[in-house]
Amino acid sequence: MKLSLMPIAALVVSTLVGCARKGAGGAARVPVTVAHAEQRAVPFEIPATGTAEPVQTASVQAQVSGLLTHVTFHEGDDVAAGQVLFEIDPRPFQAALEQARAMLARDQAQHQAAELDAQRYGELVKRDYVTKSDYDARRAAADALGATLRADSAAVASAALNLEWATIRAPIAGRTGRLLVREGNLVRANNPDPLVIINQIHPILVRFAVPEQHLAGIQRYRRNRLPVLVSPSKTDTLFTEGVLSFVDNSVDTATGTVLLKGEFPNRDNALWPGEFLTVRLQLYVEDSAVVVPSQAVMTGQQGTYLFVVNHDGTARSQAVTVERSAGAYAVIAQGVRAGDEVVTDGQVRLVSGAAVEVKGVAEAARELGGDK
Asked: How far apart are CA 107 and CA 103, in angstroms?
């Protein structure tokens, strides 16, 4: 039994010695991740949420009634302005045009004869061969046929226009939507339901609203063609860039915001009408701003602060003034200088003067304002 107790006694002694050594060495160092404060160009941006909308929208409708004989495009096609989209059976309109032309020709002949007759009576009345009333009657008949002739000309123009409208063309360039009629359907003039809707998406607009307190800055820098950056979500790092194209002429009193629009070339069809987007309006670029990763900044009872790693391996609490946020960074107005090593992870376990062990350096954020 004495021999079996020896290993246990040795283990107890070893544990006591280890505890004594840990106490002699002081408190354990706190593992942290750090980053360096940097001085770099940082854009000043106004965040918002926006919606894409077409520059123009056209609801294509029939202006004459008839049987739809041809549809010359497919749903979703891009079409050019003036391109033929639909063809209505032209035969009734062609027949109406021929009839109107025939009536015009008939009345032209009658008007010409009546005009000559009135001229003859005009000469005869000068010689008293006919009475003045006879001449007036001939003159009135010629004038009446002249009015009929003008009405016939208008009827020919109307019939020609109806024949032209039997071929329906795209009023604008853009992308077609869902086809609402098919070949063989009877279409009616000015039906409230369109045949197809065309949206112009090259370029495309994004509408968004910003708080009215930014209006003065927008008006100040607007002459510089302000960049607008949009992405499908806040986490997306791929942005489409456009320019500010519209500032509304009044503030919405219900929301205290101003409506803005940005215009985008959209050559790759990245933006789609009705899509919700994350928007950043860039007013200017601050050339030499001091920035730290946003996660380094903490908020306490005395305000905002962060931990700076000293050269001796200890951390100190440093009060800072955060001017604004810029993407994954915080722009620091006061408190740190470029090159200072700040703690980005593990600071919740720190107190001022605590020893730290640097376990890693935080990766630089991929996005800072407008950097892509």
From this structure: 6
Q: What CA–CA distance (Å, rounded) separates 246 from 260? A: 5
**pTM for this predicted structure:** 0.69
Single-letter code of the amino acid located at 23: G
The domains of the chain, with CATH numbers, are: 45-55+200-286 (2.40.30.170), 64-88+167-193 (2.40.50.100), 90-165 (1.10.287)
Q: For each of the chain's 372 residues, which pLDDT tens digit applies?
A: 344 444 433 443 344 334 433 433 456 889 999 999 999 999 999 999 999 999 999 999 999 999 999 999 999 999 999 999 999 999 999 999 999 999 999 999 999 998 898 888 888 888 888 888 988 888 899 899 999 999 999 999 999 999 999 999 999 999 999 998 899 999 999 888 999 999 999 999 999 999 999 999 999 998 888 999 999 876 666 789 999 999 999 999 999 999 999 999 999 999 999 999 999 999 999 888 999 999 999 998 889 999 999 999 999 999 999 988 887 889 999 999 999 999 999 988 899 899 999 988 877 644 454 444
Single-letter residue type at 112: Q
Q: Which two tokens stand for residue 295?
A: 């996660």
Residue 288 vs residues 40, 291, 296: alpha-carbon distances, Å:
5, 9, 20
Task: Spell out the residues 6+ positions from residue 11 whose beta carbon is closer than 8 angstroms to its own.
Answer: none
3-state secondary structure of 369: coil
Q: Is 130 helix (H, G, I), strand (E, B) or coil?
A: coil
Distances (CA, A) of 67 to 63, 167, 367: 13, 12, 58
Enumerate residues 6+ apart whose C-beta is below 8 A from 56. 172, 174, 199, 200
Instruction: State whether residue 227 is helix, strand or coil.
Output: strand
- Largest Cα separation within the chain, whole Å, is 168
